[in-house]
Design brief:
Layout: H1 3-18, E1 27-32, E2 35-37, E3 40-43, E4 49-55, E5 61-65, E6 70-74, E7 78-84, E8 90-96, E9 104-109
Parallel strand pairs: 1-4, 3-9
Antiparallel strand pairs: 1-2, 4-7, 5-6, 5-8, 8-9
């Protein structure tokens, strides 16, 4: 590999690092016993984040938030990403549509 392609590759890798594109920045959210854990998630205002939602229950659950305008079904025993933001400072409620009485949570952007 000549020097120019190596420099391009290095520039791309640095750009990804600068914008926080790596799995360590994921925020873990678990569904178990028809409840979200943690039920309160704090994120930086003005930044896009990725929630990695793991549904440990055997049944599907829908991550639903009218505040965030997000609806996503997470099949039982599976994981799925949900991208949130960038958000203004404030609180944004979410729930599990299929178990609304127990699956409740809030995202707090600070």
């Amino acid at each position: 590999m000549s020097m120019e392609p190596k420099m391009r590759l290095l520039a791309v890798l640095l750009a990804f690092t600068a914008f926080g594109v790596h799995a360590a920045d994921d925020i873990a959210l678990t569904i178990e016993g028809h409840r979200f854990t943690p039920s309160r998630i704090e994120i930086p205002a003005g930044q896009k984040v990725r929630l990695m939602v793991e549904n440990r229950d055997a049944t599907p659950e829908e991550f639903d938030s009218s505040d965030l305008r997000i609806e996503k079904v997470i099949p039982g025993k599976s994981k799925a990403p949900i991208f949130v933001g960038p958000l203004k400072a404030g609180e944004y409620k979410f729930m599990g549509e299929f178990n609304a009485s127990t699956a409740q949570g809030v995202i707090v952007a600070k």
